[in-house]
Amino acid sequence: MLEATSLTRVFGDKRVVDAVSFRVEPGRITGFVGANGAGKTTTMRMLMGVLAPTSGTVSWDGEPITVERRRTFGYMPEERGLYPRMKVGEQLVYFARLHGMSTYDAGKRTASLLEHFGLTDRADDLLDDLSLGNQQRVQIAAALIHRLTALVLDEPFSGLDPLAVDSMTDLLRNEAADLPLLFSSHQLDLVERLCDDLIVLSAGRVVASGAVEELRERGSEQYRVVLDGEDAAWLRDLDGVEVSDVDGSTALLSLTGLPPADLTAAVVAKSRVLEVARVRQPLSEIFREVTS
Ligand SMILES: Nc1ncnc2c1ncn2[C@@H]1O[C@H](COP(=O)(O)OP(=O)(O)OP(=O)(O)O)[C@@H](O)[C@H]1O
Protein backbone atom coordinates (compact mmCIF):
# COMPACT_ATOMS: atom_id res chain seq x y z
CA MET A 1 0.00 0.00 0.00
CA LEU A 2 1.20 3.46 -0.93
CA GLU A 3 0.66 6.11 1.71
CA ALA A 4 1.20 9.85 2.01
CA THR A 5 1.34 11.29 5.49
CA SER A 6 1.12 15.03 6.06
CA LEU A 7 2.83 15.76 2.76
CA THR A 8 3.54 19.45 2.51
CA ARG A 9 5.28 21.51 -0.14
CA VAL A 10 5.98 25.21 0.09
CA PHE A 11 7.10 27.27 -2.91
CA GLY A 12 8.28 30.72 -1.77
CA ASP A 13 5.60 31.82 0.65
CA LYS A 14 2.93 29.63 -0.92
CA ARG A 15 1.84 26.39 0.72
CA VAL A 16 0.91 24.54 -2.43
CA VAL A 17 0.36 21.15 -0.77
CA ASP A 18 -0.70 21.38 2.84
CA ALA A 19 -0.54 18.37 5.16
CA VAL A 20 -1.99 15.96 2.63
CA SER A 21 -2.56 12.41 3.86
CA PHE A 22 -4.12 9.51 1.99
CA ARG A 23 -3.72 5.84 1.15
CA VAL A 24 -3.74 4.16 -2.22
CA GLU A 25 -4.80 0.59 -1.58
CA PRO A 26 -3.72 -2.35 -3.74
CA GLY A 27 -6.34 -3.61 -6.13
CA ARG A 28 -8.28 -0.37 -5.95
CA ILE A 29 -8.29 2.42 -8.46
CA THR A 30 -8.00 5.77 -6.74
CA GLY A 31 -8.97 8.96 -8.51
CA PHE A 32 -7.24 12.20 -7.64
CA VAL A 33 -9.34 15.23 -8.48
CA GLY A 34 -9.26 18.95 -7.81
CA ALA A 35 -9.46 22.22 -9.67
CA ASN A 36 -6.54 23.61 -11.68
CA GLY A 37 -3.72 24.46 -9.35
CA ALA A 38 -5.12 22.43 -6.42
CA GLY A 39 -1.77 20.66 -6.02
CA LYS A 40 -2.32 17.25 -7.66
CA THR A 41 0.78 17.25 -9.84
CA THR A 42 2.94 18.54 -7.00
CA THR A 43 1.64 15.76 -4.73
CA MET A 44 2.25 13.07 -7.36
CA ARG A 45 5.76 14.34 -7.96
CA MET A 46 6.45 14.02 -4.24
CA LEU A 47 5.01 10.51 -4.24
CA MET A 48 7.42 9.61 -7.01
CA GLY A 49 10.40 11.33 -5.39
CA VAL A 50 10.82 13.72 -8.32
CA LEU A 51 10.22 16.60 -5.91
CA ALA A 52 11.26 16.67 -2.26
CA PRO A 53 8.52 17.44 0.25
CA THR A 54 8.98 20.40 2.58
CA SER A 55 7.69 18.03 5.24
CA GLY A 56 5.74 14.82 5.52
CA THR A 57 6.47 11.30 4.34
CA VAL A 58 5.68 8.76 1.67
CA SER A 59 5.63 5.14 2.75
CA TRP A 60 5.16 1.73 1.21
CA ASP A 61 3.60 -1.02 3.31
CA GLY A 62 4.24 1.03 6.43
CA GLU A 63 7.96 1.63 5.79
CA PRO A 64 9.59 4.79 4.43
CA ILE A 65 9.67 4.41 0.66
CA THR A 66 12.98 3.65 -1.05
CA VAL A 67 14.45 4.60 -4.43
CA GLU A 68 14.37 0.93 -5.43
CA ARG A 69 10.69 0.64 -4.63
CA ARG A 70 9.86 3.78 -6.60
CA ARG A 71 11.75 2.36 -9.55
CA THR A 72 9.13 -0.36 -9.75
CA PHE A 73 6.31 2.18 -10.10
CA GLY A 74 4.79 3.01 -13.43
CA TYR A 75 4.77 6.79 -13.61
CA MET A 76 3.23 9.01 -16.18
CA PRO A 77 4.36 12.53 -15.42
CA GLU A 78 2.51 15.67 -16.46
CA GLU A 79 5.47 16.69 -18.58
CA ARG A 80 5.49 13.71 -20.90
CA GLY A 81 8.95 12.22 -21.14
CA LEU A 82 9.24 10.57 -24.54
CA TYR A 83 11.70 11.18 -27.36
CA PRO A 84 9.91 12.86 -30.28
CA ARG A 85 12.47 11.82 -32.90
CA MET A 86 12.79 8.20 -31.85
CA LYS A 87 10.76 5.37 -33.32
CA VAL A 88 7.80 4.29 -31.20
CA GLY A 89 8.77 0.63 -30.89
CA GLU A 90 12.43 1.38 -30.30
CA GLN A 91 11.75 3.74 -27.46
CA LEU A 92 9.46 1.36 -25.66
CA VAL A 93 12.11 -1.34 -25.92
CA TYR A 94 14.64 1.22 -24.67
CA PHE A 95 12.54 2.06 -21.59
CA ALA A 96 12.01 -1.62 -20.88
CA ARG A 97 15.75 -2.24 -21.11
CA LEU A 98 16.35 0.70 -18.73
CA HIS A 99 14.18 -1.16 -16.26
CA GLY A 100 16.41 -4.19 -16.55
CA MET A 101 14.34 -6.35 -18.89
CA SER A 102 16.13 -8.66 -21.33
CA THR A 103 16.06 -7.67 -25.01
CA TYR A 104 13.70 -10.56 -25.69
CA ASP A 105 11.27 -9.67 -22.90
CA ALA A 106 11.42 -5.97 -23.79
CA GLY A 107 10.50 -6.77 -27.38
CA LYS A 108 7.67 -9.05 -26.35
CA ARG A 109 6.24 -6.57 -23.90
CA THR A 110 6.49 -3.74 -26.43
CA ALA A 111 4.71 -5.78 -29.08
CA SER A 112 1.92 -6.72 -26.70
CA LEU A 113 1.32 -3.15 -25.51
CA LEU A 114 1.42 -1.77 -29.05
CA GLU A 115 -1.10 -4.36 -30.09
CA HIS A 116 -3.36 -3.50 -27.18
CA PHE A 117 -3.39 0.15 -28.18
CA GLY A 118 -3.84 -0.61 -31.89
CA LEU A 119 -0.41 0.80 -32.71
CA THR A 120 1.37 -2.27 -34.07
CA ASP A 121 1.65 -0.79 -37.54
CA ARG A 122 3.07 2.45 -36.13
CA ALA A 123 6.02 0.80 -34.36
CA ASP A 124 8.50 2.09 -36.94
CA ASP A 125 7.12 5.63 -37.05
CA LEU A 126 8.74 8.48 -35.20
CA LEU A 127 6.75 9.53 -32.14
CA ASP A 128 6.45 13.03 -33.61
CA ASP A 129 4.61 11.66 -36.63
CA LEU A 130 1.77 10.29 -34.49
CA SER A 131 -1.37 12.22 -33.59
CA LEU A 132 -1.44 13.65 -30.06
CA GLY A 133 -3.88 10.96 -28.93
CA ASN A 134 -1.61 8.22 -30.23
CA GLN A 135 1.42 9.83 -28.62
CA GLN A 136 -0.54 9.73 -25.39
CA ARG A 137 -1.12 5.99 -25.86
CA VAL A 138 2.59 5.45 -26.31
CA GLN A 139 3.19 7.45 -23.15
CA ILE A 140 0.86 5.18 -21.25
CA ALA A 141 2.54 2.12 -22.76
CA ALA A 142 5.87 3.52 -21.52
CA ALA A 143 4.48 3.81 -17.98
CA LEU A 144 3.30 0.19 -18.14
CA ILE A 145 6.35 -1.30 -19.80
CA HIS A 146 8.10 -2.89 -16.83
CA ARG A 147 7.00 -5.18 -14.04
CA LEU A 148 5.03 -2.86 -11.82
CA THR A 149 4.18 -2.66 -8.15
CA ALA A 150 2.16 0.57 -8.35
CA LEU A 151 0.95 3.09 -10.89
CA VAL A 152 0.94 6.87 -10.54
CA LEU A 153 -0.56 8.54 -13.59
CA ASP A 154 -0.97 12.30 -14.04
CA GLU A 155 -3.90 13.01 -16.34
CA PRO A 156 -3.57 9.76 -18.32
CA PHE A 157 -6.86 10.26 -20.16
CA SER A 158 -6.45 13.82 -21.36
CA GLY A 159 -6.60 14.05 -25.12
CA LEU A 160 -7.79 10.48 -25.68
CA ASP A 161 -10.84 9.73 -27.82
CA PRO A 162 -13.60 7.57 -26.27
CA LEU A 163 -12.30 4.38 -27.90
CA ALA A 164 -8.81 4.97 -26.59
CA VAL A 165 -10.26 5.71 -23.14
CA ASP A 166 -12.03 2.35 -23.23
CA SER A 167 -8.98 0.36 -24.28
CA MET A 168 -6.88 2.22 -21.73
CA THR A 169 -9.46 1.49 -19.03
CA ASP A 170 -9.41 -2.21 -19.91
CA LEU A 171 -5.67 -2.27 -19.85
CA LEU A 172 -5.46 -0.55 -16.48
CA ARG A 173 -8.01 -2.91 -14.99
CA ASN A 174 -5.91 -5.85 -16.17
CA GLU A 175 -2.46 -4.47 -15.44
CA ALA A 176 -3.34 -2.93 -12.13
CA ALA A 177 -5.73 -5.58 -10.87
CA ASP A 178 -3.66 -6.13 -7.70
CA LEU A 179 -1.73 -2.88 -7.58
CA PRO A 180 -2.29 0.49 -5.99
CA LEU A 181 -3.24 2.82 -8.83
CA LEU A 182 -3.56 6.57 -8.45
CA PHE A 183 -4.51 8.79 -11.35
CA SER A 184 -5.45 12.43 -11.62
CA SER A 185 -8.14 13.64 -13.93
CA HIS A 186 -10.48 16.52 -14.64
CA GLN A 187 -12.95 14.17 -16.34
CA LEU A 188 -15.32 13.47 -13.48
CA ASP A 189 -17.59 11.19 -15.50
CA LEU A 190 -14.61 8.99 -16.20
CA VAL A 191 -13.45 9.06 -12.60
CA GLU A 192 -16.94 8.06 -11.57
CA ARG A 193 -16.94 5.13 -13.98
CA LEU A 194 -13.48 3.88 -13.16
CA CYS A 195 -12.62 4.62 -9.54
CA ASP A 196 -13.16 2.70 -6.36
CA ASP A 197 -11.72 5.42 -4.16
CA LEU A 198 -11.48 9.15 -4.48
CA ILE A 199 -9.29 11.91 -3.10
CA VAL A 200 -10.50 15.46 -3.60
CA LEU A 201 -7.94 18.21 -3.26
CA SER A 202 -8.79 21.87 -2.91
CA ALA A 203 -6.17 24.61 -2.48
CA GLY A 204 -3.57 22.07 -1.39
CA ARG A 205 -5.74 20.26 1.15
CA VAL A 206 -7.69 17.02 1.10
CA VAL A 207 -11.32 18.07 1.44
CA ALA A 208 -12.87 14.63 0.88
CA SER A 209 -11.58 11.09 0.52
CA GLY A 210 -12.85 7.56 0.69
CA ALA A 211 -14.81 5.03 -1.31
CA VAL A 212 -16.80 6.65 -4.10
CA GLU A 213 -19.97 4.87 -2.96
CA GLU A 214 -19.58 6.12 0.60
CA LEU A 215 -18.96 9.68 -0.54
CA ARG A 216 -22.16 9.50 -2.53
CA GLU A 217 -24.10 8.25 0.48
CA ARG A 218 -22.82 11.14 2.54
CA GLY A 219 -24.06 13.67 0.02
CA SER A 220 -27.45 15.28 0.26
CA GLU A 221 -30.06 12.77 -0.78
CA GLN A 222 -32.49 13.72 -3.49
CA TYR A 223 -35.60 12.20 -5.02
CA ARG A 224 -37.19 12.61 -8.40
CA VAL A 225 -40.97 12.53 -8.62
CA VAL A 226 -42.67 12.28 -12.01
CA LEU A 227 -46.43 12.81 -12.12
CA ASP A 228 -48.71 11.52 -14.84
CA GLY A 229 -48.92 14.71 -16.93
CA GLU A 230 -49.94 16.95 -14.02
CA ASP A 231 -47.87 20.02 -13.02
CA ALA A 232 -45.59 18.99 -10.15
CA ALA A 233 -45.45 22.49 -8.64
CA TRP A 234 -47.93 21.49 -5.90
CA LEU A 235 -45.20 19.36 -4.32
CA ARG A 236 -43.74 22.60 -2.98
CA ASP A 237 -46.66 22.62 -0.52
CA LEU A 238 -46.07 19.08 0.68
CA ASP A 239 -45.00 18.97 4.34
CA GLY A 240 -41.55 17.61 5.14
CA VAL A 241 -40.02 18.06 1.69
CA GLU A 242 -38.01 20.78 0.02
CA VAL A 243 -38.40 21.02 -3.73
CA SER A 244 -35.27 22.22 -5.49
CA ASP A 245 -36.53 22.09 -9.07
CA VAL A 246 -39.77 21.66 -10.97
CA ASP A 247 -39.88 20.99 -14.69
CA GLY A 248 -43.45 20.35 -15.88
CA SER A 249 -44.60 17.14 -14.24
CA THR A 250 -41.15 16.36 -12.80
CA ALA A 251 -39.88 17.60 -9.44
CA LEU A 252 -36.55 17.17 -7.72
CA LEU A 253 -36.73 17.28 -3.95
CA SER A 254 -35.03 16.39 -0.70
CA LEU A 255 -36.70 15.21 2.46
CA THR A 256 -36.65 17.61 5.39
CA GLY A 257 -38.94 15.69 7.73
CA LEU A 258 -40.94 13.18 5.75
CA PRO A 259 -39.56 9.63 6.17
CA PRO A 260 -38.36 8.17 2.84
CA ALA A 261 -40.81 5.26 3.16
CA ASP A 262 -43.74 7.71 3.30
CA LEU A 263 -42.85 9.78 0.25
CA THR A 264 -44.61 7.66 -2.37
CA ALA A 265 -47.80 7.40 -0.32
CA ALA A 266 -47.85 11.17 0.30
CA VAL A 267 -47.64 11.90 -3.42
CA VAL A 268 -49.99 9.13 -4.53
CA ALA A 269 -52.62 10.48 -2.11
CA LYS A 270 -52.97 13.57 -4.30
CA SER A 271 -51.77 12.68 -7.80
CA ARG A 272 -51.31 9.92 -10.29
CA VAL A 273 -47.62 9.07 -10.20
CA LEU A 274 -45.32 7.63 -12.86
CA GLU A 275 -42.12 7.51 -10.84
CA VAL A 276 -40.62 8.15 -7.42
CA ALA A 277 -36.88 7.47 -7.45
CA ARG A 278 -33.89 8.19 -5.29
CA VAL A 279 -31.36 10.14 -7.31
CA ARG A 280 -27.78 9.02 -7.03
CA GLN A 281 -25.70 12.07 -6.54
CA PRO A 282 -23.30 12.51 -9.43
CA LEU A 283 -19.65 12.98 -8.62
CA SER A 284 -19.74 16.47 -10.11
CA GLU A 285 -22.22 17.42 -7.38
CA ILE A 286 -20.04 16.01 -4.60
CA PHE A 287 -17.07 17.78 -6.13
CA ARG A 288 -18.92 21.08 -6.19
CA GLU A 289 -20.06 20.68 -2.59
CA VAL A 290 -16.66 19.89 -1.12
CA THR A 291 -14.64 22.39 -3.12
CA SER A 292 -16.99 25.40 -2.92
N1 LIG B 1 8.11 24.68 -9.15
C1 LIG B 1 7.14 25.48 -8.74
N2 LIG B 1 7.42 26.72 -8.27
C2 LIG B 1 6.44 27.55 -7.85
N3 LIG B 1 5.13 27.22 -7.84
C3 LIG B 1 4.79 26.03 -8.30
C4 LIG B 1 5.77 25.08 -8.77
N4 LIG B 1 5.13 23.94 -9.14
C5 LIG B 1 3.81 24.18 -8.93
N5 LIG B 1 3.61 25.41 -8.43
C6 LIG B 1 2.30 25.99 -8.07
O1 LIG B 1 1.66 25.09 -7.23
C7 LIG B 1 0.24 25.13 -7.44
C8 LIG B 1 -0.26 23.72 -7.65
O2 LIG B 1 0.18 23.25 -8.90
P1 LIG B 1 -0.08 21.76 -9.41
O3 LIG B 1 0.47 21.68 -10.79
O4 LIG B 1 0.39 20.81 -8.39
O5 LIG B 1 -1.68 21.73 -9.45
P2 LIG B 1 -2.63 20.68 -10.18
O6 LIG B 1 -3.71 20.36 -9.21
O7 LIG B 1 -1.85 19.57 -10.74
O8 LIG B 1 -3.21 21.58 -11.35
P3 LIG B 1 -3.70 21.17 -12.83
O9 LIG B 1 -4.98 20.43 -12.66
O10 LIG B 1 -3.90 22.50 -13.49
O11 LIG B 1 -2.61 20.36 -13.47
C9 LIG B 1 0.02 26.07 -8.61
O12 LIG B 1 -0.38 27.32 -8.10
C10 LIG B 1 1.38 26.15 -9.25
O13 LIG B 1 1.55 27.39 -9.89
From TrEMBL:
Domain ABC transporter: residue ranges: 2-228
Family: Belongs to the ABC transporter superfamily.
InterPro entries, per database record: AAA+_ATPase, ABC_transporter-like_ATP-bd, ABC_transporter-like_CS, P-loop_NTPase
Pfam families in the cross-refs: ABC_tran (PF00005)
GO MF annotation terms: ATP binding; ATP hydrolysis activity
Keyword line: ATP-binding, Nucleotide-binding, Transport
Keyword Protein transport tagged: no
Name the UniProt record assigns to this protein: ABC transporter ATP-binding protein
PANTHER family: ABC TRANSPORTER, ATP-BINDING PROTEIN
